[in-house]
Amino acid sequence: DAEIRSREANDLKSKLQAFIKSENVQKFQSEIAKFKEERAKRVVDYSKSFSKRLAEDEKELRSSVSIASKIINDITGYSSVLRLKDNITQKEKNLRDLRRAIKESKAASVAANENRMNSQQQMNELLERKHTWSSSDLEKFTGLYRSDHELEKQVQESAAKLKALESKEDETHAELIQGIMDRYHEEQVWSDKIRQISTWGTFCIMCINLLVVLIVQFFFEPLKRAKLVNSFELKVKDLF
């Protein structure tokens, strides 16, 4: 009996292995694996598309909020304050650039003056020993004399440029101060306007609440009382 049972168990095991290795089972397993793979791919694609849609919605929401903010600023008059603020920022940048240019121009003017002073010093030294000049000294003096005119021109041009930049700096600084004052004035006007809007808004809300109370007291309450009286009268008639 034990041998028969062992033989039957081995036959069942071999049949089960043959069934698992059969072509239909292999195809079924392949289809299951393919289905799982496609399902996972669809989940990933859906996640990507959802993330993409979420990013697009967020971008559209930010754009809408920005547009709404600009509209509110136009209505309240804060846009003019922002324009003045941008103008002040630009003036500050221009003033910084001018001061940087003035610093560079001063350095160039100092260098031009030093070059001319050195040239004149060399010319004076040569003139002091004019009676002992050699041919090279004569050539050197001639070159210095010719370059002196160019150096003088550079000194004059650098001085004129520095003066123009300093004048422009004064104008820009005055415009910056005026812009700050204009911005302060516009902010005060905007603040007063907001307070007025808030006051009138509160007053309108109070009027609406009062109107609602009056409507309830003089319209709905009489109707309610009349309805209750009619209902009571009908019940009394039904009793008697």
From TrEMBL:
Location, primary (coarse class): mitochondrion
A GO cellular component entry from the record: mitochondrial inner membrane
Function: Required for the maintenance of the structure of the mitochondrial inner membrane. Involved in mitochondrial morphology. Causes growth arrest when highly overexpressed.
Domain of life: Eukaryota
Name of protein: Sensitive to high expression protein 9, mitochondrial
Transmembrane segments: 200-220
Membrane topology listed for this record: Multi-pass membrane protein
Species this protein is from: [Candida] arabinofermentans NRRL YB-2248
UniProt subcellular location: Mitochondrion inner membrane
GO biological process: inner mitochondrial membrane organization
UniProt keyword Repressor present: no
Pfam families: She9_MDM33 (PF05546)
InterPro entries, alphabetized: MDM33_fungi
Keywords from the named record: Coiled coil, Membrane, Mitochondrion, Mitochondrion inner membrane, Transit peptide, Transmembrane, Transmembrane helix
Coiled-coil annotated residue ranges, if any: 81-168
Assembly, per entry: Homooligomer.
Family stated for the protein in its record: Belongs to the SHE9 family.
Taxon lineage: Eukaryota, Fungi, Dikarya, Ascomycota, Saccharomycotina
